[in-house]
Design a protein that fits this description.
Helix content is 34%, strand content 21%. The radius of gyration is 21 Å and the shape is globular.
Length: 475
């Protein structure tokens, strides 16, 4: 039976798994790395930290699997910029998708240019796209990059020696032409990027052989094994969902949350349109910038373990009477269905009687309400027959239950899988022509029973009818 070494370079850690043809994990491991932040909005990571973490996680996963893989595949956070010099080495830290320093620069590009970028690339341009990040670097006096790579592209380059990207990752550059399925000469000229700095665009199932250097880093993998390009983490997670639940909308929880649906109609405005794994297929994607990150922040602020915040929210004595509203715009603006960078997180309805359980429950509800806003915005363009919410293994599925109550849609909660990791593995298995086979949908997690669904739906309606207040910045 063929096995795949699947690598997922996430926002806070790298996850590595050895998958077989039935999508069973024969071995897995995860190793974290830090993000450097400051008051300017910087959010940077060291690419060397990625490589050290990847080497450790790979060796641990392969040791558990007990046999070398037949192929490798990648998926990763995006958009995250790695700028390389002429010598092929990074010019500095990687600029992650959480970095907001280029937002003001994008505003100065003008509405006409931003509109054209969205028309051609499907990307409502903001400072979290690679072209904006690079322009900010140069504006700050740093040397222009000889090569512009996203995080996954950089790993692929280090493992294979090839500079390449897939369509879903290319969409995070802000220079991709959806109609032509390659870089846009027009946009490259408009934004002033050197076309030679961009990697070749190839299909998700494009493969190059693993180099001796890459084999040594990973340990237990023979040089020459095919390394498949894979795709963006959200797109690979959606590929996992569609493999098991054809036609479903994916809600993917992580540091951020992604709502992703395969387009069944015209392209929606002010929504990221991204290429999917299947050639020619497009998805409408909405990204909530700080959901899991907001939950982690609140847990730390309240002095509880991250996994205990959901338990705290579930202890609320009277959820029907919850007076607190928590708007989870903690990442410096919001995308989702709003696309406004002038938003900040806010807590409304505080009083001397407000408890920690109030705050926890309100944050979970705020995330569910914002996700509902996204689903409603997608309704004219995609099927909403079934929503599959992918949660972490320890979740008790409060979030999906609140989403079902707020949206009125059927929500299936799946916990215990690493959807991006498995979705990328499916890409490699399909490319090898060996699977996946004998795969059954995982047992859904039971949703917690809501005390008063009617009261929740009414709170959701009030939340969504109220326009979030501006913090004074540009929208």
């Amino acid at each position: 039976m063929a096995t795949i070494l699947s690598i997922d370079l996430g926002t806070s850690r790298v996850k590595v798994g050895v998958l077989d043809e039935g999508l069973r994990l024969r071995g897995s491991a995860a190793v974290a790395y830090p993000t450097a932040r400051d008051a300017s909005g910087a959010a940077e990571q060291r690419s060397d930290d990625w490589l050290v973490a990847l080497g450790r996680a790979s060796r641990e996963a392969l040791a558990a699997a007990g046999a070398p893989p037949d192929a490798l595949v990648l998926t990763a956070q995006m958009p995250t910029l790695v700028a390389l010099g002429d010598d092929g080495e990074p010019l500095g830290p990687a600029v992650t998708w959480q970095d907001g320093r280029a937002d003001g620069l994008v505003e100065r590009l003008g509405a006409a240019l931003r509109t054209r970028v969205e028309e051609v690339s499907g990307a409502p341009l903001d400072g979290r796209y690679l072209v904006a990040m690079e322009r900010r670097r140069v504006a700050d006096g740093l040397a222009p990059a000889a090569r512009l790579l996203s995080a996954k592209d950089y790993l692929y380059y280090r493992l294979t020696g090839t500079l390449a990207t897939d369509p879903s990752t290319a969409s995070g550059y802000g220079l991709y032409d959806l109609a032509r399925a390659t870089w846009s000469d027009e946009l490259i000229g408009l934004v002033g990027v050197d076309a030679a700095a961009l990697p070749e665009v190839a299909a998700c199932d494009h493969a190059e052989p693993l180099t001796a250097w890459g084999a040594e880093l990973l340990g237990g993998v023979a040089p020459g094994r095919p390394v498949y390009l894979g795709g963006a983490d959200s797109v690979c997670a959606h590929h996992f969902v569609e493999t098991l639940y054809p036609g479903a909308v994916s809600v993917i929880d992580g540091s951020s949350s992604v709502v992703l649906a395969t387009l069944a109609g015209p392209r929606p405005a002010r929504t990221l349109v991204t290429p999917l794994v299947r050639a020619g297929a497009l998805g409408a994607e909405m990204d909530l910038l700080a959901t899991g990150a907001s939950l982690a922040w609140l847990a730390e602020t309240l002095g509880v373990a991250p996994g205990a915040l959901e338990d705290l929210a579930l202890t609320h004595p009277d959820p029907a009477g919850l007076a607190v509203t928590f708007r989870p715009y903690l990442a410096g603006g919001e995308q989702g269905a709003l696309w406004r960078r002038d938003l900040a997180g806010s807590i409304e309805g505080l009083s001397l009687t407000t408890t920690r359980a109030d705050l926890a429950r309100a944050l979970y509800e705020g995330i569910a309400f914002e996700t509902t806003r996204c689903l409603r915005a997608l309704a004219p363009y995609a099927r909403l027959d079934r929503v599959v919410a992918l949660t972490n293994p320890t979740s008790r599925s409060l979030g999906p239950a609140l989403l079902a109550g707020a949206s009125g849609l059927e929500v299936t909660a799946i916990a215990g899988h690493s959807p991006s990791l498995v979705g990328a593995g499916i890409v490699a298995l399909e490319a090898l022509g060996v699977g996946p086979v004998d795969v059954s949908a995982p047992t859904p997690s039971g949703l917690v029973e809501l005390a008063d669904p009617g009261a929740l739906a009414a709170r959701a309606a009030r939340y969504l009818e109220t326009v979030p207040p501006s913090t004074g910045g540009a929208s």
